[in-house]
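To illustrate the input format used throughout this study, we show a single complete record. The first block contains the structure-token representation of the backbone; no residue identities are included at this stage. The design step must infer an amino acid for every position from geometry alone.
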């Protein structure tokens, strides 16, 4: 399906490119824009944005995605809304169509859009939705594009999403089905868990590692998958339930639990050994090599792809 509407977070979409509003030359000011730049690597993305040529309303520029899931970021210059009588609909439409045009020219196969214009640009939500839907679907049909485009609506940013869907005669259930049809990658799931980190220093203290280690994992600044011990400690520090912990570790090292050491860790956690130092005391009694210690290098697993075959699975103990 070339065009889908999904409920979710733009930054968690497993697409080749995402589209964001062009921020000022000085840098992002809104909370979500700051999160986007921090996730990508603030200085790297800002430097790339500053290298873009001067654009007028409706134009779009492309940069690398750096630490984001997506390889590319499209920066769309969105105009302010003054009631709709000054050509705002046309320029907002151009934000979508120019992004699609550039994506097609660069052989990009998938792209995700937010509801551009909502927020500081003051485009009414209903207008933003209709413009986005018509612009994306219309351009794809008119130019017979084969790329997959997604309009991502974030419920937390958009608290009245159900009312919007009702007003537009779009069933919320239909949106949820569209989302469920997309396979969520292990990478998406892994970093969705990491969004629960509120205080990197506190998590690092619980893991007995440096805050920079947590920051690198959180912001995807690594070339190798984090070491298995690090992932397990992170799951414990996050306070994940048993089911969530298994799900979290399996995003990187599958299957989990895998061996006798994993089984013992799970048994001890069930017994209340959630303090990593106390947990390590018990593990050391069984085998000194089993203790949970952060190591800088783990398995080489591009994009955190799961290794499902036990024969292919490598333990770094």
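Output of the design step:
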């Amino acid at each position: 399906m070339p065009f889908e509407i999904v409920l979710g977070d733009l930054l968690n979409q497993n697409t080749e490119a995402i589209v964001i509003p062009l921020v000022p030359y000085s840098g992002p000011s809104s909370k979500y824009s700051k999160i986007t730049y921090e996730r990508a690597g603030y200085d790297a993305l800002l430097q790339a944005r500053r290298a873009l040529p001067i654009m007028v309303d409706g134009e779009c520029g492309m940069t690398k995605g750096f630490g984001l899931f997506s390889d590319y970021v499209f920066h769309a210059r969105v105009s302010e809304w003054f009631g709709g009588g000054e050509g705002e609909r046309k320029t907002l439409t151009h934000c979508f169509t120019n992004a699609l045009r550039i994506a097609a020219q660069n052989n990009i196969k998938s792209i995700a859009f937010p509801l551009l214009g909502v927020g500081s640009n003051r485009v009414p939500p209903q207008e933003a939705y209709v413009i986005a839907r018509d612009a994306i679907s219309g351009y794809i049909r008119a130019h017979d594009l084969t790329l997959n485009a997604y309009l991502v609506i974030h419920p937390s940013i958009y608290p009245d999403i159900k009312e919007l869907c009702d007003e537009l005669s779009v069933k919320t259930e239909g949106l949820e089905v569209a989302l469920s049809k997309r396979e969520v990658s292990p990478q998406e799931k892994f970093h969705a868990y990491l969004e629960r980190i509120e205080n990197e220093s506190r998590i690092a203290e619980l893991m007995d590692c440096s805050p920079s280690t947590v920051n690198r994992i959180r912001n995807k600044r690594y070339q190798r998958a984090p070491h298995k011990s690090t992932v397990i400690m992170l799951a414990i520090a996050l306070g994940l339930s048993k089911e969530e912990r298994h799900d979290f570790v399996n995003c990187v090292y599958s299957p989990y639990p895998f061996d006798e050491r994993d089984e013992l860790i799970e048994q001890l956690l069930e017994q209340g050994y959630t303090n990593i130092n106390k947990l390590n005391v018990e593990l050391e009694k069984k085998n000194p090599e089993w203790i949970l210690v952060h190591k800088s290098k783990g398995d080489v697993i591009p994009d955190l792809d799961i290794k499902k075959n036990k024969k292919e699975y490598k333990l770094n103990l």
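Structural context for interpreting the output: DSSP finds 13 helices and six strands in the chain. Residues 168-182, 296-317 have pLDDT under 50 and may be disordered.
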